[in-house]
């Protein structure tokens, strides 16, 4: 077996990783995909991917999502081809990944997983000496978004526009307050999304005032992330309207399926997404040594 470290993936590696992810999902009955880019990582030159090969075949993938400074928690995504499991491939990739993280000052990391995987593998935690941490998300999806009624009064007061460079500072301030993040992180996050050709960034306007934001990673499936409504405009149906309108616009451009993740205790957001047609399909959990 050969282990390779990569900062970014070339086109063939990207295709191979996507095929591996799809195979793992079919076998494990899981849904959540690791992000196959280093666009948001704090250190641009830090290797983001650890790839394991047997001959020319990709059999393992580790992705390091490290979007904050070294004192923060890093998500370490681990996938192994079902035909090559129980051969220490995951352990060897994780050892390599830990060396990368330590080199850049990271010592605190966890492993994203899905509840259904643990249900199907009840001895996994005992064998790996991992524990659940107090954090979880629902993965939600829809192919049939709820349509906005023509009689909806929000049609008269809300509009959607593409995010512009001059809007970044204002949106970052709103996002920083909404998510409790520091302003510099929010600014970097929004600016990087805007600069990425694969990502569409939208703002919600109420009487020409920016009251919401959402980014969409376009692909075979459109992944919505970073959505928020400014504090004083919440609980008025703005969130449901915003996400419905985004999906309506993207469907006109050929989009067919939409996916997002939401924290399990964010009941207002979950209700807004359900109102927009999303259904919960799995629960994302996090494991830590």
Give a structural overview.
With 289 residues, the protein is of the alpha+beta class. It is built from eight helices and twelve strands. It has helices at residues 11-28, 89-103, 115-120, 124-128, 168-179, 183-195, 238-252, 267-275; strands spanning 2-6, 49-54, 57-65, 74-80, 109-114, 131-142, 158-162, 199-206, 209-217, 222-229, 258-263, 279-288. The radius of gyration is 20 Å and the shape is globular.
| CATH class type of the largest domain | Alpha Beta
The assigned CATH architecture of the largest domain is 3-Layer(aba) Sandwich
Instruction: Indicate how many domains the architecture comprises.
Output: 2
Runs in which pLDDT lies below 50 for 5 or more consecutive residues are: none
Provide a short characterization of the protein structure.
By secondary structure, the chain is α+β, with helices and mostly antiparallel strands.
List keywords for this structure.
289 residues; alpha+beta; Aminopeptidase; 12-stranded mixed β-sheet; 12 strands; 32% helix; globular
Topology:
Layout (H helix, E strand, L loop, with lengths): L1 E5 L4 H18 L20 E6 L2 E9 L8 E7 L8 H15 L5 E6 H6 L3 H5 L2 E12 L15 E5 L5 H12 L3 H13 L3 E8 L2 E9 L4 E8 L8 H15 L5 E6 L3 H9 L3 E10 L1
Parallel strand pairs: 4-5, 10-11
Antiparallel strand pairs: 1-2, 2-3, 3-4, 5-12, 6-11, 6-12, 7-8, 8-9, 9-10
């Amino acid at each position: 077996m050969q282990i390779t470290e990569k900062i970014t993936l070339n086109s063939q590696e990207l295709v191979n990783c996507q095929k591996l992810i799809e195979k793992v999902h079919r076998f494990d009955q899981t849904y959540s995909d690791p992000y196959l880019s280093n666009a948001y990582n704090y250190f641009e030159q830090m290797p983001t991917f650890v790839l394991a090969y047997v001959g020319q075949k990709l059999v393992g993938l580790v992705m390091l999502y490290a979007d904050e400074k070294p004192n923060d928690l890093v998500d370490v995504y681990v996938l192994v081809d079902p035909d090559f499991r129980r051969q220490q491939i995951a352990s060897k990739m994780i050892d390599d990944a830990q060396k990368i993280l330590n080199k850049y000052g990271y010592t605190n990391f966890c492993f994203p997983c899905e509840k259904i995987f643990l249900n199907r593998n009840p001895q996994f935690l005992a064998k790996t000496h991992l524990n659940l941490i107090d954090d979880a998300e629902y993965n939600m999806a829809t192919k049939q978004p709820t349509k906005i009624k023509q009689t909806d009064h929000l049609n008269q007061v809300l509009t959607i526009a593409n995010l512009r460079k001059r809007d970044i500072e204002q949106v970052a301030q709103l996002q920083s307050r909404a998510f409790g993040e520091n302003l510099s992180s929010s600014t970097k996050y929004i600016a990087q999304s805007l600069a990425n050709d694969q990502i569409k960034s939208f703002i919600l306007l109420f009487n020409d005032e920016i009251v919401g934001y959402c980014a969409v990673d376009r692909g075979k499936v459109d992944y919505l992330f970073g959505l928020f409504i400014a504090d004083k405009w919440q609980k008025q149906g703005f969130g449901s309207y915003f996400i419905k309108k985004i999906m309506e616009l993207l469907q006109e451009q050929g989009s067919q399926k939409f996916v997002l993740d939401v924290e399990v205790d964010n009941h207002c957001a979950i209700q807004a997404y359900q109102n927009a047609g999303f259904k919960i399909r799995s629960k994302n959990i996090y494991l830590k040594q």
